[in-house]
């Protein structure tokens, strides 16, 4: 479909529980409709929320209210130097995402709340205390960046880049200067620590207590996990590892190969590019609208 003239989203600042201001954008319809869903888009690690603006406009054009936001230390939620800045993946979920869910409940009272989570954004959806408010969840390439789950033919190269070089540079700089290196956005040291840990971040606490039922089991949503076969992060074991944490949810895993939509390459980041608005975006839209996939949806259900 061709999108109408792009709407102008509202900017906002929402204080998290620790009073840190979270910045983002809202696509809001003029007339309130109690049955209209509001969709929160959770970004990937160190990807600015502006990356998802065209997708947000697409959802808005299809009758949904939409909220995008940046995690603390990133984009609209960054204020000053990241050297010594305290933030972790857990903070991004239990504080930042939680603040946005509460904002949605307040600003769009009574409307269904749906979530789209890219990469870490799918994990973040399971970390908020208000997870029970989520009606439907679509994840794209969502996983823990656990190195043993990386695609086999590039695993050691990815391990060296993300689990050796990235933490070493972070140790020297006090944060990861991703923009300068062309590797995503600048990233807080605590997030780098979580990414580079040798075991999945939410597999155990230091005490060894499993986190499988805490807090992901609060979410009782209809979940569609979309994975792309040439995504080196989003392998089948990686996607299933995260899905297994959402024990109280109805879960569907859709595996799409580039050839299923006439492409040679898609990878980890391309799903949200506007060139796929006619071939990939309708999959997410159908799930958000109806909680099911049309019979002619490309890919395989695992």
Strands of the widest sheet, in order across it, are 1-2-4-3-5-6-9-10-11
List SSEs in N-to-C order: EEEHEHEHEHEHEHEHEHE
The assigned structural class equals alpha/beta
> Care to count the β-strands?
11
Q: What is the average per-residue confidence, as pLDDT, rounded to a whole number?
A: 92
Shape: globular
**What is the terminal separation in angstroms?**
28 Å
Helix content: 25-40%
| Count of separate DSSP helical elements | 8
Q: Nearest-angstrom radius of gyration?
A: 18 Å
The largest sheet, given as strand count, sense and whether it forms a barrel, is:
9 strands, mixed
Which band does the percent of strand residues land in?
A: 15-25%
**Would you identify the regions where 5 or more consecutive residues have pLDDT less than 50?**
1-5, 204-213
What is the oligomeric state here? single chain
Please render the helix and strand layout as text.
Layout: E1 10-15, E2 21-27, E3 38-42, H1 53-61, E4 65-69, H2 89-107, E5 113-118, H3 120-124, E6 134-140, H4 155-173, E7 175-176, H5 178-181, E8 187-188, H6 189-196, E9 222-228, H7 236-243, E10 250-256, H8 281-290, E11 300-301
Parallel strand pairs: 3-4, 3-5, 5-6, 6-9, 9-10
Antiparallel strand pairs: 1-2, 2-4, 7-8, 10-11
How would you explain this protein's 3D organization?
Helices cover 27% and strands 19% of the residues. It is α/β, with parallel strands linked by helices and 302 residues long. The chain has a 9-stranded mixed sheet, with helices on both faces. A two-stranded antiparallel sheet has the order 7-8. The chain is globular.
